[in-house]
Structure formats: structure tokens, C-alpha cells
Target: LysR family transcriptional regulator
Amino acid sequence: MELTQLEYFLTVARLQHMTQASKALNLTQPALSHAISKLELELGVPLFERSGRNLELNRYGQMFMIWVEQAMQDLTKGTRELQEWTNPDTGVIALSYLNILGVDLVPTLIRDYQRTHPQVRFELTQGSLGDIDEHLNKGLSDLMITSRESFMELHEWIVIQTLPLFIVVSAQHPFADRPSLSLTELSGEPFVGLKNNCGLKATILARFQSTGFTLTSTYDAEDLITVAGFINAGLGVSVLPRTMGLELDGLVWIPIQEEGWQWELGLKWRKDRYVSPAAKRFIEYVQSLCYDGTSC
Model:
């Protein structure tokens, strides 16, 4: 059964005349008659009572017409909704992001974007790295804000922000008064690490590997806020970005002497997937930003 057959059926049912219907559809009468006969054959019942070129819906046709009209209305609504969702001025952008980024980066980014695109809406999903990666790969998100090390071959990537990493200790720790520290000085210190589902873990591991220094975690936390809490309780030290949500009272942030210790955050999407006009315009906006989040 084809959509055009249903459109032809509704036109004939409303006009109840084959010649008038063929003119309204800009179709030859034999072609229209064939389409209606084919539809009746597929359904296994006649839909019209025929008297020359005049046709009148029988009880099967009346029954079928109710459902066809409902289906056509639903298709129209579905088409309209797709247009609204993808429209760059009024569309919806499905965006997923790491939990910690919901404290500052993501709300700031959305607020600034909606100042110039007030009718665009965001459908937001936050979670661990594994959660939001799955969301993007299943096509449930258009875009994802995460750390650089989660980039893969099928992904496109734009840097949004680069944050310096610090060695973080409690205010009672012997290192608390140091103006800077080398990572080698952390040898033997209880270290509060991260589990694999946190976006920062890959960054930290990559940096440690480049220095040739190995650190064994005493604790592995689920998220950055928990890491900060463990440090504040005097249970160990760690390496963290200085972002909102982590600056607890009692923590001391010490610059790292080695170079290259930064956390790069960016916008990611699948280059092998459809990207709506609304999402494309947001990508263009992010491309126009400097690494500190301001417009270049």
C-alpha cells in the first residue's frame, strides 16, 4: 500500500466522481481507476458502489476513510514536528555532557547562545563518560560535550575550553604551603583517582604516561565531586581542573611544574550521522568561540 493510493482514495471519496477526482489530482482517469482498484485488491474488499463515473462509499469505504484521514493527519503533524525540531531558528538540539560540566560550562554556553537564538530549545542529558558516549552513538544526542581523549575516528571535534590541571591537597597536608609541585613528589602519597567512566581519567593517564611516572590509586571515585570530597577529608591527593563545583573550602590548588597538564573540553558529534540545521548552527556558534568561551 502506497501513500499516493491513500491520497487518491480520499480525493475520490470526497468528490464521489472519478472524472472530477482525476482532474483535481492532475491524473488520467484510467490511472486513477487502476490505483483505486489496486487498493481494493490489496484490502480484499470493495470501497465504493459504482454507477458509471459516479462512486459512493460503501460501509467498508466509510470505515476505511476514518482511519486514512487520521493517518494523514498524523503524518502532517509528524512532518510539521520534524520541521520545527530541525529549524535552525526554532529547533531542538539534543545535547549530552559530563556531569561536572553542568555546574558552569554547559549552562553558560546555553545561556549565551539563547541570547541570540531565544526560540531554540535544548534537550539535555548528563552522565558519566560511558553513559553519554552511548547516548551519542545510539543517535539519541546530536552533540556531546566531553574531554579530548574520548575523541574517536568517526567523531568531529571542536575545542571549547582548555583548563589547567592542579595538584589538589587538603589544607592540613604538608604540601599545602608549596607554591608549585612536581608530580614526582607525589610518589608514595595516597592518590584519589577516577573510575573508567569519568572523562578526565583518560587525560590524566595520558599525561602520566608521557612523563614516565606511574602513580597507584588508593581510591577510585565515580566522579570529580567525590574526588574533591575525599581530598578534603584528608584521604589523599589528586590532580583536578579548577572548575565550579570542585572548589570546596579546605582544598589547596597547587600549580604543576611539568608542562602540558591541561584538560581540553570540546564539542563532539558523529560525522557519519545526520546533523540537523539547528545543531549545525550551534556547531558554528561554538566554532566562533575562543578557548575561554568568549566570542573571538
